[in-house]
UniProtKB/TrEMBL annotation:
InterPro entries referenced in this protein's UniProt entry, alphabetically: ALO_C, FAD-bd_PCMH, FAD-bd_PCMH-like_sf, FAD-bd_PCMH_sub1, FAD-bd_PCMH_sub2, FAD_lactone_oxidase-like, Oxid_FAD_bind_N, Vanillyl_alc_oxidase_C-sub2
Source species: Arthrobacter parietis
Name of the featured protein: Alditol oxidase
Keyword Oxidoreductase: yes
Origin superkingdom: Bacteria
Keyword terms of this UniProt record: Oxidoreductase
All copies of domain FAD-binding PCMH-type, residue ranges: 13-177
Pfam families, alphabetized: ALO, FAD_binding_4
SUPFAM superfamilies in the record: FAD-binding/transporter-associated domain-like
KW Oxidoreductase (keyword) present: yes
C-alpha cells in the first residue's frame, strides 16, 4: 500500500521508497514478495546508512513480533523478526530465562540487529547474531526457507544484510535469567587503559569505555556491568578511575534519567546490560553513528591512532565508546574468526562534515584491518571487503542461489557484491 515512508530513527535519511508494506503474518509476507520485482526489509529504522533503502518498495517487519515460543529442552526461544529486544527481554524474564547479551539500545529489532551484526560488549560475549541457531526467511519466489546449524550455509545466512530474503522468524539460544550490577567509574587515565587493556575490559561481564577526546589523556568513564554469580567484587577504583557517586549518562553533563540503573545495585539482566531504558529516547537529540571493529590484538595501536586524530575528531564528536566482542564464525560478522574491539563514534548530525572526516579516520584504522559496522555511516569505497571477510565470495554464491533475480538487492549491497 502507498505510504509516506518517512525517515530513519536519527532523521538523517529519508527513505526513497514510494510504497511501504506492513504485513502482519508470514503468509502475507510471502504474497507481497511473490508479487514484486524489488523489495527490502525495514526493521526498527536504527540504521544510519542506506542499507534498508534504494528500492521502490519496502516491507516493514514491525508487526512480525510473535509468538514467542520457548523450548526448554533445547534452551532456545523462537521469535518474530520484528520484535524489539527490550520487549523480548521482558517476556523472557517472566519465563526465568535470558539472552547472554544485549546491545546498548533495547529499542532495536531482533531481525535488523542480527542482519547487520550488531553487538553488545564483553570480553567473552559474542555478537547478538551469534545467539541464532535457526532462522526462516521468505525468498524472492515467495517460498519459506529454514536454516539451522546443521546446514552448511548457516553461518552465511545469519548476518545477511537483507539480501537473501525477508527474515520472518529466528531461534535464539537462551540461558537461566541472571542479575547484573552496573557501576560507572570516572576519569580513567588513558595510559592506564592502554597499558592494562585486558584488565580494564575484563574487569566484569560487560565493560564499555566512553571518552569525548576533549582531554586526550583521560577517558571520561568506564561502564562496568558485573554478574555477581560470575565476577569478582569491584573496588572503589579501577586502574585509577574512581566510582561515581551519582548516576551518569554516557555523554558528560546530560541527566541520567533515561539510563539503566547504576551505583552497583543488582537488577535484572535486561535492565542493566543496555545503557538505556526501553521507555526513553536514547539520544542527545539528532546524531550520526559510525563504528569500526578491529582485531583485539591491534586494540592499543588502534586507540592510539584515534587519539592522534583527536583534534579533527573532537569538533564533530559527541562521544566515542570502546567495547569488546568475542569471536564467532558468521561469515559477515565484524568479529568473524577474531576477538575484536569496537570503536564506536556518536557524531553530531552534520553529515557532510562527518563524511569528509571518515576517510581520514578509516585510513588511520586500515592497517589494523578495521571492519565497519554494516548499519552505521562509513565510506563504502574505502574498504577491501574481500580482504576483510574471507568468506565473502561464499556469501556471494549463496546470494545468487537464494536470490538469482536480485529482488532484495539495492545499491548499498550491490557495491558489496561486486568483485
Amino acid at each position: 500500500m502507498a505510504n509516506d515512508v518517512g525517515t530513519n530513527w536519527a532523521g538523517n535519511l529519508a527513505y526513497g521508497a514510494s510504497t511501504l508494506h506492513e504485513p502482519t503474518s508470514v503468509d502475507e509476507v510471502r504474497r507481497i514478495v511473490a508479487g514484486v520485482s524489488s523489495i527490502r526489509a525495514l526493521g526498527s529504522r536504527h540504521s544510519f546508512n542506506s542499507i534498508a533503502d534504494g528500492t521502490a518498495e519496502l516491507l516493514s517487519t514491525a508487526a512480525l513480533t510473535g509468538p514467542v515460543t520457548v523450548d526448554r529442552d533445547r534452551s532456545t526461544v523462537t521469535v518474530g523478526a520484528g520484535i524489539r529486544y527490550g520487549e523480548l527481554a521482558q517476556e523472557l524474564e517472566r519465563e526465568g530465562i535470558a539472552l547472554a547479551n544485549l546491545a546498548s539500545l533495547p529499542h532495536i529489532s531482533v531481525g535488523g540487529a542480527v542482519a547487520t551484526g550488531t553487538h553488545g560488549s564483553g570480553k567473552r560475549n559474542r555478537s547478538l547474531a551469534a545467539a541464532v541457531v535457526g532462522l526462516e526467511l521468505v525468498t524472492g519466489s515467495g517460498d519459506l526457507v529454514r536454516f539451522t546449524t546443521s546446514d552448511p550455509d548457516f553461518e552465511g545466512a545469519v548476518i545477511n544484510l537483507g539480501v537473501l530474503g525477508i527474515v520472518t522468524r529466528l531461534e535464539l539460544k537462551v540461558e537461566p535469567a541472571f542479575e547484573v550490577e552496573q557501576t560507572v567509574f570516572e576519569r580513567l587515565p588513558l595510559e592506564n587503559l592502554l597499558q592494562n587493556f585486558d584488565g580494564v575490559t575484563g574487569a566484569a561481564y560487560s565493560v564499555s569505555v566512553f571518552t569525548t577526546w576533549r582531554d586526550p589523556d583521560v577517558a571520561d568513564s568506564v561502564w562496568v556491568k558485573r554478574r555477581p554469580d560470575q565476577d569478582a567484587p569491584l573496588e572503589e577504583t579501577l586502574f585509577g578511575a574512581v566510582a561515581a557517586k551519582d548516576e551518569r549518562h554516557p555523554l558528560p553533563g546530560l541527566p541520567a534519567i533515561g539510563c539503566t540503573p547504576q551505583l552497583g545495585v543488582a537488577g535484572p539482566w535486561y535492565n542493566r546490560l543496555p545503557h538505556f531504558k526501553l521507555d526513553f529516547t536514547p539520544s542527545n537529540g539528532v546524531e550520526l553513528q559510525s563504528e569500526y571493529l578491529v582485531p583485539r590484538e591491534h586494540a592499543v595501536d588502534a586507540i592510539r591512532a584515534v587519539r592522534e586524530l583527536s583534534p579533527e575528531i573532537v569538533p564533530l564528536l559527541q562521544v566515542n565508546e570502546i567495547r569488546t566482542v568475542a569471536a564467532d564464525d558468521l561469515w559477515l560478522s565484524s568479529s568473524y574468526a577474531t576477538d575484536a574491539i569496537g570503536l564506536h563514534f556518536t557524531w553530531v548530525q552534520d553529515q557532510p562534515a562527518v563524511e569528509a572526516l571518515l576517510p581520514t579516520l578509516e585510513a588511520a584504522l586500515e592497517p589494523f584491518l578495521a571492519r565497519p559496522h554494516w548499519g552505521k555511516v562509513f565510506t563504502p569505497g574505502a574498504h577491501d571487503f574481500d580482504r576483510l571477510y574471507p568468506r565473502l565470495e561464499d556469501f556471494r554464491l549463496l546470494t545468487k542461489r537464494l536470490d538469482p533475480e536480485g529482488i532484495f538487492a539495492n545499491p548499498f549491497t550491490a557495491s558489496l557484491m561486486a568483485r
